[in-house]
Amino acid sequence: MDFQIPEEAETLRKDVREFAKAELPEDWVAGILEEESRDEDWAFAMSISKKLAQKGWLTMAWPKEYGGGGASHWEQFVYREEAGYWSIPGTGMGIGAIDWVGPCLMLFGNDEQRKKYIPLIASGEPDGVWCTGYSEPNAGSDFANIQTSVVKEGNSYLVNGQKLWTSCAHRARWCWLAVRTDPNAKKKQHGISLLIVDMKSPGITIRPLYNHAGFHSFNEVFFDNVRVPAENLVGDENRGWYYLMQALSFERHTAFPQALGTCRRVFDELASYVKRRIEDGKPLSQDPIVRRRFAEIAVELEVMKVLSYEITWKADQGIIPIYESSRNKAFLDRLLERFSIFGMQIIGAYSQVDLDSRWTKLQGRMQRLYLTFPGLACAGGTSEIQKNIIGQFKLGLPRSY
Ligand SMILES: Cc1cc2nc3c(=O)[nH]c(=O)nc-3n(C[C@H](O)[C@H](O)[C@H](O)COP(=O)(O)OP(=O)(O)OC[C@H]3O[C@@H](n4cnc5c(N)ncnc54)[C@H](O)[C@@H]3O)c2cc1C
Predict the structure, then answer these.
(1) Read out DSSP for 190-205?
(2) Could you tell me if the CB of 95 is within 6 A of ligand 1?
(3) pTM of this structure
(4) Which atom of ligand 1 is nearest to the CA of 168?
(5) 130-237 CATH pick, 3.40.605.10, 2.40.110.10, 2.60.40.1260, 3.40.190.10
(6) Cα 385 to averaged position of ligand 1 atoms, centre (Å)
(7) pLDDT tens-place string over residues 331-359
(8) Does the beta carbon of 378 lie inside 6 Å of ligand 1?
(9) Which of 51, 82, 148, 364 could pair covalently with 355 via S-S, beta carbons 3.0-4.6 A apart?
């Protein structure tokens, strides 16, 4: 494995930094998915998406034939890492548009779908924003258990059911929706299809869910006789599970660089804080326990970086990662937990104040991470599910479910 990041990617890193400094307010701070909550933040995120699209960064890793930049995996990695470090909003166009909807349409969609949706996503405009409708009240880890049903009626499908935890549904124009088309299939996986749903369709009700940080990023979405044109079926009926596994693999593969960048930024801010913070007459950074724990987190961040490099290098060589994304997610979940708890201990009683209080330290970055880590450990598949995947695909253990 070659650890050296290519020169063009390092040049891009500088460009992204300059972009962030020029375009973001000096005091800009936003936690992961937070931009979806307040109207003004979302409007700002959309204005940045458009600029990213104009620079050719939004879909830089897409193939040129689909209007992408044909960038290398290393460039994509560096762009994402910097986007996380500077909390650049609008890089995802909702949930999944760039990372799995577009790439899956390239693989499994038909020509009309590619012509219609791919340029919309790449434009950075609000009409290119998507949400992902997988989870339901009785189908999370057990994804194959989805019950949202469809009945074919003439040239359309009638959709009925409920989705849960649907991030960005309140902002999205389209939904990447997993539905049950064959309730009698012998294997649950064989009765699932994938539909593209216009979120403006009559019969859709979106109910907000506020997370424990007080932000509105996910929702409950109800489908009551929602009519979806048959042409919005992706690929073949009842083959959805196969497309969804590919989409999930894209999802797990693309999330790390940004999370790594976010962690690095909070780490740097915390390191600077302990140098300034005087306790018992000397900087907190001179406390041997603080120093030791800082070093431990630094080592773990470095390991996270190297694990991410390994996947990037493999992808660059044309090797498809199988268990590696799950390994990285499981590692990141634990790292976020340990780092967040350590950081909150460092900030002490100040970590209890509201994010916008004048007493908040590090602009609330540490609290944001702390409030976000349990959710991130579930999103995209829980840590336990990632460990099951590692057990099965890396260690050759029997399936656990
Ligand atoms: C921030 C955030 C954003 C999200 N965004 C979306 C979105 O946009 N679209 C969407 O569809 N969903 C979204 N989700 C939902 C997410 O995919 C689910 O929360 C996740 O798949 C877990 O499902 P669940 O919540 O039903 O938990 P469950 O599946 O009920 O799991 C409960 C617990 O049991 C454990 N468990 C379950 N099965 C096993 C097993 N076989 N082996 C070992 N342990 C097991 C789990 O690890 C977990 O600890 C989001 C979630 C979060 C937190």
Answers:
(1) GGEEEEEEETTSTTEE
(2) yes
(3) 0.94
(4) 8
(5) 2.40.110.10
(6) 9
(7) 999 999 999 999 999 999 999 998 889 99
(8) yes
(9) 364
